[in-house]
Design brief:
Blueprint (H helix, E strand, L loop, with lengths): L1 H4 L4 H32 L5 H14 L10
């Protein structure tokens, strides 16, 4: 992000940074959804694998307070 925001100041910097952070959060959310999908779609997986997928999804996209309203 620092390479993209280098040379930007004020409102322009804030706007680009906000957009980049939104993009990162969307990628994290998509990755977590894929992990949760694997967890749900394959009930035959061993318990340890299922718990690992669930924990990986939680770590990839924690439940941030601002996400509660969505």
């Amino acid at each position: 992000m620092s390479e993209i925001t280098a040379g930007l100041y004020g409102h322009e910097y804030d706007e680009i940074r906000r957009r980049l952070e939104d993009l990162v959060r969307a990628a994290e959310r998509d990755a977590a959804e894929k992990l949760y999908g694997e967890y749900r779609q394959q009930p035959e997986l061993e318990l340890g694998v299922r718990l690992g997928l669930n924990k990986a999804a939680e770590l990839t996209f924690p439940n941030y307070p601002e996400e509660d309203g969505e």
